[in-house]
Write the structure tokens for this entry.
Amino acid sequence: MAVLHLSPLALAHSRFALSPLAETLGTVIALARPGPAPWFAAWHARHLPALAAVGAADPFARGLIGLVSSTTWLPRCLAIPPPNGLRTSLADELAAVRTLPDAAFRAALETSAAHPHPRHAARHHRHRDLSWLTGHAWADRTADLLQCLWRTHVAPDWTRRRTLLERDVAHRAGLLATRGWPGALDQMSRHSTWEGPDAIRFGRRPGPDRVIGDAGMLFVPVSLATGTWLCEGPPGHYAQVYPARGGATVHALPQHTTTPGRALARLVGTGRAGLLHALRQPATSTELAARLQQSLGTVGGHLAVLRDAGLVVGTRVGRRVVYRRTERGDLLVDDAEPDPGHAADGLNPAPGGENGMSATHPPG
């Protein structure tokens, strides 16, 4: 197992980040691998034809998708730390992908080709010789492919996904405030464990130890992947991608809408009762205003009253404040339906085991 040793300042500077690129990679890998887990089988069936069409039209796309979905070592040119924390955009990340010259790009893919996933070895063999890697400007072609895959498979429900990811960050930020980094990282991955005051053991396979520099470590949730992978940037800069809590919710369960109960509406008012019901999934005030078709001022006033009553709480995530119900708020609402926001509070179930992937050595 590789051990990530943190410098004296690394803990203080470690933080959470979002990565549209990692979300796209996790989505493509989940789509390309056969035998989807039951919790997202319907989503898989809807999206697979479009992915297959992309591969059928372009051997380069088919080869690259096949390689990243059948290796335990994601190409380092794709597994990169998000550059702008919670505000990272796909354009930011694809700009970094495009900078790689062809020689370095091929070297990264050769490393991935040498590490087949044990459960996907037969599929991996078709892409291992890299015969599909023809022409030139491979980094640009890869960035264009990822942009296309993002638009087709991620962008249509990015708002829902981002809400889930921010919810996970808010949850772990609360653990960080009360229990420190060991508490925040608890159950983040079955194969990443905290060791002593300044080291993280990553993965199950042998690999070189690394030192996390004073810039700290980034922790990046994604909604579909069931494994983790390590992203490596400049020396000392790393990010760990991990499965967000409740991924089954955003891809498998419908978005329920319920009418607030009459007793609750009489108690707190129709507007505040509706807002409490809407907060079965954490949301920003802007998202709540759009969902409830109310002004920001009205929603803000209701939130202030509910917050003072201890029924909701807001957590800052970057420049946004994400609101969620407290335990008291949940008890007051007492929904008759199961809360989709809590249907899968554990780590995403792995289809047949852990999908270990890494730019270095995976938890496999």
Remarks:
- The longest strand covers residues 217-222.
- Residues 253-258, 335-364 have pLDDT under 50 and may be disordered.
